[in-house]
Amino acid sequence: GESVGLHLPTLSVQEGDNSIINCAYSNSASDYFIWYKQESGKGPQFIIDIRSNMDKRQGQRVTVLLNKTVKHLSLQIAATQPGDSAVYFCAERAGTASKLTFGTGTRLQVTL
Amino acid sequence: ETGVTQTPRHLVMGMTNKKSLKCEQHLGHNAMYWYKQSAKKPLELMFVYNFKEQTENNSVPSRFSPECPNSSHLFLHLHTLQPEDSALYLCASSQVQGRGGNQPQHFGDGTRLSIL
Prior knowledge:
The structure holds two protein chains of two kinds.
Chain A: E1 4-5, E2 10-14, E3 19-25, E4 30-38, E5 45-51, E6 56-58, E7 62-67, E8 72-77, E9 86-94, E10 101-102, E11 106-111
Parallel strand pairs in A: 2-11
Antiparallel strand pairs in A: 1-3, 3-8, 4-5, 4-9, 6-7, 7-8, 9-10, 9-11
Chain B: E1 4-7, E2 10-13, E3 18-25, E4 31-37, E5 44-50, E6 53-57, E7 64-70, E8 73-79, E9 87-94, E10 106-107, E11 111-115
Parallel strand pairs in B: 2-11
Antiparallel strand pairs in B: 1-3, 3-8, 4-5, 4-9, 5-6, 7-8, 9-10, 9-11
């Protein structure tokens, strides 16, 4: 079946460094992708999204890159801060369906 | 403040109890969702409501019964649950536009459910 997965379950970075969280997807029909951040005791929080007609989108300190050729999505966080410590999920959707498929998540740990 | 409020935040119940989870969204969205989040598993979609009509039931056992009285409120009625139903139950909402559209879902902080 179709799946969305993450390469690394845990990522540890030093404060101030850049973080890169990766996501692989298998549904070639997926045309919309979202990154969520989930802090302990809270629900997933929308970070940034990207449509398949783009290969890069930037937000505040975050950049999402989409490589449709290899079905790969990444989230880059610049100047990582302790408040960035959380679990990050990618999600994808194919076509007009409202259903999102989520990956298992990557835990980002920021060390001082 | 996410715009999606879930109550209660924590719930402990026995297998024979009946309880309900409540979700309210203040974002003016027209679609609402229930998800189950278990440890080390991806988020599992349970139910989808568009314009108060259920459009998806992802093979959820009948001991979970959703209700959507209007586009701002969503309930999940629980009855005769099993220990494996212990999880974080998340509600989300989104604006579904014509021909699907691409709008993100916004989540509440969930109800942590423990079945004794």
